Amino acid sequence: MRTDIEDIVRAVSAASDLDDVLEIIVRRVGAFLPIDACRVYLTDVEGGRLVLMGSSGVSPTSAGSARAARHSGLPDLVAERREMVVLADARTHPRYVAPPETGDGRYRAFLGMPLIHFHRVLGVLAAWKAHSPFDRDEVTFFITIAAQLARVIHQAAAVGEVRRLLSGAAPEEGFIQGAQAAAGLAIGTAALVDPLANLESVPDRRSQDVVAEEKAFRAAVTAAQRELQSAGARLTDILPREVRELFDVYSMLLGSEDLVHSTIERIRAGNWAPGAWRDTIAEHARSFDQLDDPYLRARGEDIREIGRRILLHLESDIQAPRLYPERCILVGDSISITEIGGVPLGRLAGIVSRHGSALSHSTILARAIGIPAVVSLPSLPIADLEGRTIAVDGDQGRIFVQPSLAVLDAFERRIGQQAALTERLVALRDLPAETPDGVRVPLHANIGFTSDTEAARSSEAEGVGLYRTEYQFLLRETFPVEDEQYEVYRQLLQAFTPMPVTIRTLDVGGDKILPYFPMEEDNPFLGCRGIRFSLEHPEILMIQLRAMLRANAGLGNLQVLFPMVARIGELDEALELLVRAHRELLDEGQETAMPRTGVMIEIPSAVFLTKALAERVDFVSVGSNDLAQYILAVDRNNEQVATPYDSLHPAVLNAIHKITLDAHERSRRVTVCGELAGDPAGALVLLGMGVDAFSVSPASLSRVKLVIRTFTVEQARTLLETALEKEDELSVHRLLNAALEEAGVLGAGTVS
Ligand code: PEP
Ligand code: MG
User: Fold this and answer.
1) Rounded to an integer, what is the distance from CA 476 to the centroid of its chain?
2) Ligand 2 is an ion; residues with CB less than 5 A from it
3) Cβ(696)–Cβ(443) below 8 Å
4) What region, left, alpha or beta, does residue 445 occupy, with left being phi > 0 and alpha being psi -120 to 50 degrees?
5) CA nearest neighbour of 466 among 344, 578, 560, 346
6) Which residue's CA is minimally distant from atom 8 of ligand 1?
7) Order of strands across the sheet with 109-117?
């Protein structure tokens, strides 16, 4: 049965539009089960009532006329109750209305399943039988298939909606939800990236001249490499070094033995170059697609992008120079870093792609150059979008196609508010982060790339509260050796000396998997993460600790921070390794001093061990991102559960409050380095708790400063006390937003 369901879902997923989807559902389900009629009703968005959209098991004339007829009766009951209804003899049920398209009351048994997607009833899948009741297997079949069909119907409906807009229907307020990839807002004109280069549609063809095919292929590789290099060169000045290196990595990948040789072999075996290349790319990308790890899966996407670039060069000898609109929104199936770099500077306003993730290299590049990007819009009919107006909301991961005037106005207003706020914040530049009642709260920066140093320095951060070393490890092909790490840490410590720089030991695992160190785990977020990974591989941790200690020589501003500690023993072991690294260096005659140390509290068990942990180090740092994830049992990266993931949940706030009290009892300072500290409402409650320092992304630093300079500690404490008593996160948001609004600082973080 499972394979039958998979077959139906696969056929439905491949359908070209909503009508097709519905047609396939009723036909296939009707053919698979001994039922007499199958119907799909969809909820009419305007009237909120069910409309019959697809039907099998009735005469063609009645099906035609019944289509789009409204219905009431048992299907409505299913939608109202949002649960399955199974009846052996429906005719005795008080809500029974004979199906209007037959009207003869010959169907007895009824089975109706709601089609629910993201809490919305999209419609109802119903089946009728004239004689026997539905048996258990049939019911099970419906339960299983309905859940899967809802998702496909949702996507097909979204495509239909966009097509309807494009066909001249009035512009809409509706949006298409994707995934947030790079923050910011933009309005512009869609420009499709090379729509011609569709690898999947390349046919097999016997080559007439193997030598010529091989030559053409090699020429295409060289041309794509050249193109990549010039795209990289254009962005050289504005990119962090690590991101710039992506262009070199791609260039190497393009010419890699693996890709080039297996294609040449295929050409020599008789296929023409585009067909050979298609197979090579499919083979390589597939091996990545099958991996569980999202970072590695994103590499499959990267390979396909390379595939398209080469195909384009194979398909046309002369590439006409591309003209880009004034405010260009690049739209594509997937978008490569070459394509991003190919748009003249100043013209690129936004990026929209059907595939991709927050981890794809093009997304990393978009963030680095500050271009709003939305990805993962599988239902987007990109072929119809060229030249259309698109509004990209990178803050919420959604796009508006042909937006209405009202939407455009709202966008302009938000863009204006963000600009006005920026001006207001710039005015705070030279002022200290100090409350009106004279309490100084140092603001530190969170840094991922050493090149963020510039942003952190110009944001006036008073040091680095969190340097996430894993970025440096993630964007490489191999582990960085001690000297390479030393260079990076030294540069960072020097840039901030004498201000403190907190360098966190490697925090990989979970969603951050090293491409060259694949790990297969069933529950990676509960698996070998952070300090567990480092203690599992002390040889890697030792190299890192030695590099940090060496970099600190003569400067003395290093603070070492240990992530994801769940047990006292883990911290003891990590500290022992630090002492060992220190001793080793002394023995080798190197100048080095023991640095200050800190522990991250981001796992619930650590909350209850704060006093014991704090005694062993100089400070504690709260990782509110993971703490919220583990307290609420909500994956921080899963869009489906994004709503319940909220660090302002009273349970999370109570935990941080406890950490602060316990650490203070042991006379240790408390820093918060999760996103909560960079959010104005979060900063306000943390101020009330008496948190000693905040570490936030450079972009949020001035907003937090505004909050600190507006509220006295006493005011913040009163708000905190009320917040801690609230029963859910919404009430906390309301309380804090009202306070921020009253103080005139609401726009500081909640421009919407
Ligand atoms: C956190 O969990 O809050 C944190 C700062 O660490 P990361 O976001 O890097 O996991
Ligand atoms: Mg964390």
Assistant:
1) 21
2) 602, 623, 626
3) yes
4) beta
5) 560
6) 625
7) 50-56, 37-43, 120-129, 109-117, 85-87
Nearest to 193 by CA among 454, 366, 386, 450: 386
Q: For residue 485, which of 496, 466, 469, 499 has the smallest C-alpha distance?
A: 469
Q: Residue 137 is encoded by which pair of tokens?
A: 């297997």
Q: Which pair of structure tokens corresponds to residue 659?
A: 């950490």
Q: Are 325 and 332 in contact (CB under 8 A)?
A: no
Number of the ligand 1 atom closest to the C-alpha atom of 563: 6
Burial of 96 from C-beta contacts in 10 A (0-12 / 13-18 / 19+): middle
DSSP SS3 for 25: helix
Residues whose CB falls within 8 Å of the CB of residue 653, separated by 6 or more in sequence, listed in order:
685, 720, 723, 724, 732
State the DSSP code for 271: B
Quick one: pLDDT band at residue 72, thresholds 50, 70, 90?
low
pLDDT at 39 over 80: yes
Confirm if 220 and 310 have CB atoms less than 8 A apart: yes
Q: Which two tokens stand for residue 408?
A: 């455009």
Token digits for 555? 């400067």
Rg (CA), the chain: 29
> What's the pLDDT tens digit per position in 361-379?
777 778 777 789 998 887 7
Instruction: Give the mutation target among 469, 507, 631, 659 for probing the ligand 1 site: most ligand atoms within 8 A of CB.
Output: 507
At position 194, the amino acid (one-letter code) is D
Task: State the amino acid at position 394 in one-letter form.
Answer: G
Q: Probe ligand 1: pick from 468, 504, 508, 603, max atoms within 8 Å of CB?
A: 468
Give phi and psi for 86, each to the nearest 5: -125, 125
The least confident of 501-505, 555-559, 575-579, 703-707 is: 703-707
Q: Give the SS3 label for residue 39.
A: strand
With bands split at pLDDT 50, 70 and 90, how would you rate the model's confidence at 529? very high
Q: What gap in Å lies between CA 197 and CA 191, rounded to an integer?
A: 15
Calpha distance 655→609 (Å, rounded): 12
**Alpha helices for 193-255 (secondary structure H):** 210-235, 241-254
Count of CB atoms situated within 10 Å of the CB of 411: 18
Structure tokens belonging to residue 225: 């490499």
Instruction: Please spell the DSSP secondary structure of 192-208, one letter per residue.
Output: ES-TT--GGGPPP-B-S
Q: Give the C-alpha separation, 732 to 656, whole Å.
A: 15
> What pLDDT is stored for residue 59 in this prediction?
46
The H-assigned helical ranges of 537-649 are: 538-551, 568-587, 604-607, 610-616, 624-632
Nearest by Cα to 655 from 680, 678, 635, 674: 674
Report how far ligand 1's centroid is from the alpha carbon of 602 (Å). 8
